[in-house]
Design a protein that fits this description.
This protein is mainly α. The chain has six helices and no strands.
Protein backbone atom coordinates (compact mmCIF):
# COMPACT_ATOMS: atom_id res chain seq x y z
CA UNK A 1 0.00 0.00 0.00
CA UNK A 2 1.47 3.35 -0.99
CA UNK A 3 1.82 6.20 1.49
CA UNK A 4 -1.05 8.27 0.08
CA UNK A 5 -3.51 5.41 0.58
CA UNK A 6 -2.28 4.92 4.14
CA UNK A 7 -2.69 8.61 4.79
CA UNK A 8 -6.28 8.55 3.50
CA UNK A 9 -7.09 5.74 5.92
CA UNK A 10 -5.52 7.68 8.81
CA UNK A 11 -7.08 11.00 7.87
CA UNK A 12 -10.22 10.72 10.08
CA UNK A 13 -8.12 9.65 13.06
CA UNK A 14 -5.62 12.45 12.51
CA UNK A 15 -8.47 14.97 12.34
CA UNK A 16 -9.90 13.77 15.66
CA UNK A 17 -6.47 13.83 17.31
CA UNK A 18 -5.77 17.36 16.07
CA UNK A 19 -9.22 18.57 17.16
CA UNK A 20 -8.71 17.05 20.62
CA UNK A 21 -5.27 18.65 20.88
CA UNK A 22 -6.66 22.05 19.85
CA UNK A 23 -9.50 21.77 22.37
CA UNK A 24 -6.99 20.97 25.14
CA UNK A 25 -4.94 24.00 24.13
CA UNK A 26 -8.01 26.21 24.27
CA UNK A 27 -8.98 24.77 27.65
CA UNK A 28 -5.45 25.23 29.02
CA UNK A 29 -5.52 28.86 27.91
CA UNK A 30 -8.86 29.30 29.74
CA UNK A 31 -10.83 29.60 26.51
CA UNK A 32 -14.52 29.09 27.07
CA UNK A 33 -17.38 28.77 24.60
CA UNK A 34 -18.23 32.40 25.40
CA UNK A 35 -14.71 33.68 24.70
CA UNK A 36 -14.52 31.64 21.49
CA UNK A 37 -17.81 33.24 20.43
CA UNK A 38 -16.24 36.65 21.08
CA UNK A 39 -13.28 35.75 18.86
CA UNK A 40 -15.67 34.48 16.16
CA UNK A 41 -17.59 37.76 16.30
CA UNK A 42 -14.37 39.80 16.03
CA UNK A 43 -13.24 37.81 13.01
CA UNK A 44 -16.60 38.32 11.32
CA UNK A 45 -16.52 42.05 12.16
CA UNK A 46 -13.07 42.29 10.56
CA UNK A 47 -14.25 40.44 7.46
CA UNK A 48 -17.25 42.77 7.20
CA UNK A 49 -14.88 45.75 7.39
CA UNK A 50 -12.89 44.33 4.47
CA UNK A 51 -16.19 43.86 2.60
CA UNK A 52 -17.01 47.54 3.21
CA UNK A 53 -13.61 48.54 1.81
CA UNK A 54 -14.34 46.43 -1.28
CA UNK A 55 -17.79 47.97 -1.88
CA UNK A 56 -18.08 48.67 -5.59
CA UNK A 57 -14.41 47.94 -6.31
CA UNK A 58 -12.61 44.78 -7.43
CA UNK A 59 -9.70 45.48 -5.05
CA UNK A 60 -9.28 47.30 -1.75
CA UNK A 61 -8.11 50.61 -3.19
CA UNK A 62 -9.63 50.54 -6.65
CA UNK A 63 -9.36 48.78 -9.98
CA UNK A 64 -5.89 47.31 -9.51
CA UNK A 65 -4.34 45.23 -6.72
CA UNK A 66 -1.99 47.09 -4.39
CA UNK A 67 0.28 46.23 -1.50
CA UNK A 68 -2.77 46.63 0.77
CA UNK A 69 -4.50 43.78 -1.10
CA UNK A 70 -1.43 41.57 -0.82
CA UNK A 71 -1.04 42.24 2.92
CA UNK A 72 -4.68 41.45 3.72
CA UNK A 73 -4.69 38.51 1.29
CA UNK A 74 -1.74 36.95 3.12
CA UNK A 75 -3.68 36.93 6.38
CA UNK A 76 -7.04 35.85 5.02
CA UNK A 77 -5.74 33.19 2.64
CA UNK A 78 -4.36 31.42 5.72
CA UNK A 79 -7.85 31.55 7.23
CA UNK A 80 -9.25 29.91 4.11
CA UNK A 81 -7.14 26.81 4.84
CA UNK A 82 -8.31 26.50 8.45
CA UNK A 83 -11.37 24.99 9.99
CA UNK A 84 -12.68 28.54 10.36
CA UNK A 85 -12.82 28.93 6.57
CA UNK A 86 -16.61 28.87 6.94
CA UNK A 87 -16.37 32.45 8.19
CA UNK A 88 -15.52 33.48 4.64
CA UNK A 89 -18.78 32.01 3.39
CA UNK A 90 -20.60 34.46 5.68
CA UNK A 91 -18.99 37.38 3.81
CA UNK A 92 -19.26 36.53 0.07
CA UNK A 93 -17.62 39.77 -1.10
CA UNK A 94 -14.42 38.89 0.75
CA UNK A 95 -14.53 35.29 -0.44
CA UNK A 96 -14.88 36.46 -4.06
CA UNK A 97 -12.05 38.98 -3.56
CA UNK A 98 -9.76 36.24 -2.24
CA UNK A 99 -10.47 34.12 -5.32
CA UNK A 100 -10.02 37.12 -7.64
CA UNK A 101 -6.73 38.14 -6.06
CA UNK A 102 -5.51 34.54 -5.97
CA UNK A 103 -6.06 34.41 -9.73
CA UNK A 104 -3.77 37.39 -10.45
CA UNK A 105 -0.89 35.73 -12.39
CA UNK A 106 2.04 36.70 -10.12
CA UNK A 107 0.10 35.73 -7.00
CA UNK A 108 -1.17 32.50 -8.55
CA UNK A 109 2.41 31.63 -9.56
CA UNK A 110 3.68 32.32 -6.04
CA UNK A 111 0.97 30.09 -4.55
CA UNK A 112 1.43 27.15 -6.91
CA UNK A 113 3.50 24.24 -5.56
Amino acid sequence: MNSSKRFLKLRPLIGRVLARRAWRRYAAASWTPESLELVRRRVLDSLELVAELLAGKPFLLGRHPTLADVAVFAQLSALSRCREAGFLADVPAVDAWLRRLGAVPPIAAALSP
